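Newbie here. two chains, one complex. Structure please?
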Amino acid sequence: MTGSLPAGFFVGEMQAPFKWILIHAARFQGMIRVLTPDGEGHVLVRKGNPMGCSFRRGKEELKGEAAYRHILSFPVVDLSIYRYTSEEMEEATHLLMEYGSLCTSSDKKPGDKPPRADHFFPQTTGEREPASVNAPGPRVLPPLPKRKLPPREAVAESTEDAAEETPVVLPSGLDLEDLAYLLLGRILRLPGVQAVSIFGRGKSVLSIGNMELDSLVVLAEDMLRAATEISTVMRTGSFVHLTLQIPSGKVIVAPYFNEYLCILTSPGVNLGQIRKILKEIPDMAEEGREVA
Amino acid sequence: MLKNELQHLFSLEGVRMAIVIDSEGRVADEMGASNIRGEQLAAVVAFVMAESKAMATRLGQEQISMVFVEFRELALISVPLVKGYFLVVITEVGANVGQVSYEMKKHQDMISSFL
């Protein structure tokens, strides 16, 4: 369908200031769907820069800079993140040009040049002349199709595809550090979560929250090692997570690529919400995975 | 009788084993599938509970409320009893863990009274 944006690969959902996501998306390319109290929009992002934007507020359609400024006016927005391949990126850029929804200078890094049409359309034949920047378009930008979270298996398959494109980039299009910040940020925003840490080999790699978890990761690793010992006496399958419940809260330990997550919560936390996020982590663990 | 209590837990859908162990990994009583060796399981679960206790102590807590370990093919739920004993239940994937843990807590005091 000519008027549709590419679906892309669903990375995840989160609540954050839009500028925050750009800061942590230096290697990301794709579409970010934005939900605000007054409407819904889309921002095409390439390497941390907004390339195009549209926003529907009731019957009003904002495009380009106006749409982007409107999204930035909210302190926090709901975001759905979709990674694009290079081909999808070109297709989306083309569509945004047609709709007059390209951004020109918003949040560009110093020295960055505005996108050039010949950059986006190396194979332009002249049949589809791009609209001028911010020119009124004849159609409104169509919404992205709503997608459900992919199962772990689907994510794992996509890992292979991504590896062919750019080996250093995750299936999400984010690098591991970006993904870690995204994930930790999402978990930390859940009500009741006090601190989150990524750890491995007895050391905290990344930690955010109200409490210092560095001193806990050695103990978390000991718990993990003990738990995985269960696999030595019976068939268990791979480790999914461990939850220690104490009167003052919960400690959750779960695999995160080749490392582990440690989450500290208050007693009333919704474990289902945390588990939902944990299930979205690409499963790189194999049967018999062991603690390093 | 302790056996009756364990029998009740074992009768819940998806439960493969219900076992009471002490902090040294000795089995007080068990009810479960014949292919699970209670003594071996008790030894490693006691290890898990000891490490969990260490974490709880580090967080300023004297007592553990529950430990839940999930694997792809099964889950383990453990709650403390009196005198350092633990009630441990092994469930299959897809078992109603909420119901099982609720029943475990409901019968916690009764099971403790037999120890």
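Moderator note: Chain A is about 30% helix and 30% strand. Helices of chain A lie at 18-23, 64-72, 86-99, 117-120, 152-165, 176-188, 217-228, 271-279. Thread marked as resolved.
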